C-alpha cells in the first residue's frame, strides 16, 4: 500500500518491542521516517538552524576562506553550482565537517584522504562548538537507533558495534538552497553511503523520497529528524533493508530552504558484517542492488570515498 506521509517513530519508546516493530516496518517498507522524542529540544534545533543562517549570511569572501578547494579531505564550503549529483549541478551552497582528526602522514589506502582537519570560519567563532556538539548528540542517538534496529532485525543488539568500536566516521553538512527556477535540482536523486542519515529541515519543503515508483514529499515536521537507511545498512542486511533514493527540489524564486544533514558510517577501516537475519527476512530480501554507476562497497572507507569523489571531484585543488 502506498503511503501519503512518512511514518513517525518515537526514539523514547524504542525500548518497547511495539515501537521496534514499527521501526522495522518503517525501515524495511519505506527506508525513511521521522524520528521524534530524540532528546534534542526545538530550542536546540532552532539554535543550530540560526547559526547556520548566520554562516550563509557571511560575505562570499568570508565563506570562500574555508572553501573545500583548500581541503583534500572534503571539508569546508562549496558555493552554489560546485557540486554534481546524478550528472547535473546541484543548486545549493553548503559547509561540510567530519571527525576532527589530523591527516595521516602517509596514505596507505586511497580512502584515508577523507581523514583530516576541519576548516572553521574565523568570521563566525561559535559555529565550531555548536556544530561539533550537535554531532556528538546525533552520534549517541544514531548508535542507540542502530542497536534498536538490530534487535528488530532479530539479531544481537550489538551485532554492528564492532564495526564502530573506535567510534563511527561521521560526516555532516549545513545547507542552503536558494530559490531558483522550478526546473532546478536542489540536489539530484541519490542514496546516502553510510548506515543512517539524519536530516533537520526548516519550515520549507522540498525533500522528496522515492516510494513505490513515485516521489513522496517529506513535509517539515517540527522537532523531528528525517532519518533514512544508507548503503551500509543495505549491505549489512544483505538487501533486506534498502538505501532509498531521495532528492531535493529547489525552492521557488524569492524563498530559500535550510537543512542540516548528518551521515553516520562505521569506522573507515571496518568491513561491514553481513547479519544473519531470520529466514523469513532473508526470503523477503531483494538482494544488494547492483547499479554499475553506484557499486555498494562493504569496505567502509571505500564506500565513503566513492560518495565524496562523486560529489566533489575538485576538493583540495587549491591546497
Ligand atoms: O537537504 C536535505 O533535505 C537532504 C540533503 C541530502 O539528501 C544529502 O545531502 O544527502
Ligand atoms: Fe542524501
Automatic annotation (TrEMBL):
GO MF annotations in UniProt: metal ion binding; oxidoreductase activity
Keywords: Iron, Metal-binding, Oxidoreductase
Residue span(s) of domain Fe2OG dioxygenase: 168-266
PROSITE patterns: FE2OG_OXY
Organism superkingdom: Bacteria
Similarity section: Belongs to the iron/ascorbate-dependent oxidoreductase family.
Protein name: 2-oxobutyrate oxidase
Organism of provenance: Idiomarina aquatica
Amino acid at each position: 500500500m502506498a503511503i501519503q506521509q512518512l511514518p513517525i517513530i518515537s526514539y523514547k519508546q524504542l525500548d518497547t518491542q511495539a515501537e521496534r516493530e514499527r521501526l522495522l516496518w518503517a525501515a524495511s517498507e519505506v527506508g525513511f521516517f521521522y524520528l521524534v522524542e530524540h532528546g534534542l529540544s526545538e530550542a536546540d534545533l532552532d539554535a543550530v538552524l540560526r547559526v547556520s543562517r548566520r554562516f550563509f549570511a557571511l560575505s562570499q569572501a568570508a565563506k570562500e576562506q574555508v572553501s573545500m578547494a583548500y581541503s583534500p579531505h572534503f571539508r569546508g564550503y562549496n558555493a552554489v553550482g560546485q557540486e554534481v549529483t546524478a550528472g547535473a549541478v546541484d543548486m545549493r551552497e553548503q559547509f561540510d565537517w567530519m571527525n576532527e582528526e589530523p591527516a595521516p602522514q602517509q596514505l596507505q589506502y586511497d580512502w584515508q584522504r577523507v581523514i583530516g582537519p576541519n576548516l572553521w570560519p574565523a568570521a563566525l567563532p561559535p559555529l565550531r562548538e555548536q556544530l561539533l556538539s550537535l554531532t556528538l548528540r546525533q552520534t549517541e542517538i544514531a548508535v542507540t537507533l542502530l542497536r534498536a534496529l538490530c534487535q528488530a532485525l532479530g539479531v544481537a543488539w550489538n551485532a554492528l558495534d564492532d564495526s564502530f568500536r573506535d567510534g563511527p566516521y561521521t560526516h555532516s553538512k549545513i545547507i542552503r538552497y536558494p530559490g531558483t527556477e522550478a526546473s532546478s535540482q536542489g540536489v539530484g536523486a541519490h542514496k546516502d553511503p553510510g548506515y543512517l542519515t539524519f536530516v533537520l529541515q526548516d519550515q520549507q519543503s522540498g525533500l522528496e523520497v522515492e516510494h513505490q515508483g513515485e516521489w513522496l514529499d517529506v513535509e517539515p515536521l517540527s522537532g523531528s529528524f528525517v532519518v533514512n537507511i544508507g548503503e551500509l545498512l543495505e549491505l549489512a542486511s544483505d538487501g533486506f533493508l534498502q538505501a532509498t533514493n531521495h532528492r531535493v527540489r529547489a525552492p521557488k524564486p524569492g524563498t530559500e530552504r535550510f537543512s542540516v544533514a548528518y551521515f553516520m558510517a562505521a569506522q573507515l577501516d571496518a568491513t561491514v558484517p553481513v547479519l544473519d537475519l531470520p529466514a523469513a527476512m532473508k526470503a523477503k530480501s531483494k538482494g544488494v542492488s547492483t547499479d554499475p554507476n553506484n557499486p555498494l562497497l562493504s569496505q567502509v572507507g571505500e564506500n565513503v570515498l566513492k560518495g565524496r569523489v562523486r560529489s566533489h571531484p575538485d576538493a583540495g585543488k587549491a591546497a
